[in-house]
């Protein structure tokens, strides 16, 4: 007994000597970095939690509210996974608003009904999946006997009771790919890739090639080949007006452009797929959004990928549209989705430090405390949904929004975290494995910092966690 006690004392002494030889432990190193003059004029919040013991390893303004940027997506995705289940799916249907005759004629409209699948036809396909779900739906309709539609092909986005943007999104956000319109019927991330080539001679219009497909997006080409102002885009109703110039022989310019009226855009895509198969459509392709849904008989349908895959696509690429759709899935309106999220957080014991008004983090009015983020991460670490949640996070130096960060360092393979970026706002929150297998949850939030090295400075905190014993 005395021998065993002596051996334990010897081991502890040796560990202490080793720690002294290696320099300060993790809390001291983190404190030295947080207290550096680099952060004297900005707002920094840090919280690091040991996942196995639950103790706080380090805290710096950890209970203060910070604008989280896309770190807010962690709350949205965690709540969706735990509330709906990792295997949940969302069905897109094609319904008949009238009877389908024996000769294959539909006496009425054909409704393409969206129920919030963000990846029905994904702009960036991150793995094996059906190449074009709208083609698959058209095949189903032909097999169901459809030969003619006497009415219109109608894009129906009424499943969600929401406007096409999140609360707190600014008007300029909607002009860019990261602020694409939100709809229960989402196709191609509600964007087109517009490729612009100079024309054959000076003064001639440039060539415009939207993807997917010519004729699906109303375009007004007011460009010219030659010197002049840079290419600019503006919307006039549902028509995209392209102005400016490209010099002769210039390389093509590709711009990601959010579409207006994504429901009508999806309807045009389905109508094109039907006509390719010889189905005659007498009417037009249009959208319906404001009135109450009219039930119809389903003629075709497809289920989404499992929710765990949708969460992975959301977090790896930090997709604002997908995140807002996952919030809406929890209640069919923004307010109901946020209420479901609050219920989830309260059940997890997180009752303070989280003020969110939408699901993506694009709002500048969201406020989150770093210690609330690590509490969320610790909660998911102990839940059955935890592996799916962790697998969805970007990996340092490997993929997602961390692919180009911390490469070749001790963080590779040992850090999985969500980034958060707005103007002068930076965040990083996730899991880190330290020396000896120490498992940490961390949250770093930095507000009001215009310096170009802000991300690299946050990475230094993470590298300390990966390299230093706590």
From TrEMBL:
This is Peptidase M15. Coiled coil: none annotated. PANTHER family: D-ALANYL-D-ALANINE CARBOXYPEPTIDASE, PENICILLIN-SENSITIVE CARBOXYPEPTIDASE A. Gene3D superfamilies: D-Ala-D-Ala carboxypeptidase C, peptidase S13 (3.50.80.20), DD-peptidase/beta-lactamase superfamily (3.40.710.10). GO terms for molecular function: serine-type carboxypeptidase activity. GO terms for biological process: peptidoglycan metabolic process; proteolysis. Residues 1-21 form the signal peptide. NCBIfam families: PBP4 (TIGR00666). Pfam families: Peptidase_S13. The keyword Hydrolase applies. Belongs to the peptidase S13 family. Keywords: Hydrolase, Signal.
């Amino acid at each position: 007994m005395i021998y065993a006690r002596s051996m334990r004392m010897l081991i502890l002494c040796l560990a202490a000597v080793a720690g002294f030889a290696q320099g300060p432990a993790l809390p001291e190193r983190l404190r030295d970095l947080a207290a550096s003059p680099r952060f004297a004029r900005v707002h920094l919040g840090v919280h690091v939690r040991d996942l196995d013991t639950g103790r706080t390893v380090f805290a710096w303004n950890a209970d203060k509210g910070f604008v989280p940027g896309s770190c807010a997506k962690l709350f949205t995705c965690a709540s969706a996974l735990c509330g709906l289940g990792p295997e949940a799916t969302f069905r897109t249907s094609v319904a008949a608003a009238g009877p389908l005759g024996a000769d294959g004629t539909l006496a009425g409209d054909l409704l393409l009904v969206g129920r919030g699948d963000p990846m029905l036809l994904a702009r960036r396909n991150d793995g094996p999946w059906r190449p074009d779900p709208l083609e698959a739906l058209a095949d189903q309709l032909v097999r169901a006997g459809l030969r003619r539609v006497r009415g219109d092909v109608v894009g129906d986005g009424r499943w969600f009771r929401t406007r096409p943007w999140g609360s707190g999104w600014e008007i300029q956000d909607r002009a860019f790919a990261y602020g694409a319109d939100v709809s229960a019927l989402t196709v191609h991330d509600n964007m087109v890739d517009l490729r612009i080539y100079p024309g054959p001679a000076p003064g001639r219009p440039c060539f415009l090639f939207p993807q997917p497909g010519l004729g699906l997006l109303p375009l007004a080409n007011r460009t010219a080949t030659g010197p002049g102002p840079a290419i600019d885009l503006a919307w006039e109703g549902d028509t995209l007006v392209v102005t400016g110039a490209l010099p002769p022989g210039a390389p093509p310019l590709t711009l990601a452009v959010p579409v207006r009226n994504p429901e009508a855009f999806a309807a045009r895509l389905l109508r094109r797929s039907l006509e390719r198969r010889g189905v005659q459509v007498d009417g037009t392709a249009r959208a319906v959004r404001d009135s109450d849904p009219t039930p119809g008989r389903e003629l075709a349908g497809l289920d989404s990928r499992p929710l765990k895959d949708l969460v992975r696509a959301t977090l790896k690429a930090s997709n604002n549209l997908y995140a807002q759709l996952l919030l809406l899935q929890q209640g069919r309106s923004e307010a109901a989705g946020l209420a479901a999220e609050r219920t989830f957080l309260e059940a997890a014991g997180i009752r303070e430090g989280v003020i969110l008004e939408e699901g993506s983090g694009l709002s500048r009015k969201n406020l989150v405390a770093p210690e609330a983020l690590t509490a969320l991460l610790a909660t998911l670490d102990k839940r059955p949904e935890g592996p799916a949640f962790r697998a969805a996070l970007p990996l340092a130096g490997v993929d997602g929004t961390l692919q180009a960060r911390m490469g070749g360092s001790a963080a590779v393979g040992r850090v999985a975290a969500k980034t958060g970026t707005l103007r002068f706002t930076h965040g990083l929150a996730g899991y880190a494995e330290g020396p000896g297998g120490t498992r940490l949850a961390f949250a770093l939030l930095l507000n009001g910092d215009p310096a170009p090295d802000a991300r690299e400075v946050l990475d230094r905190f993470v590298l300390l966690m990966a390299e230093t014993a706590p």
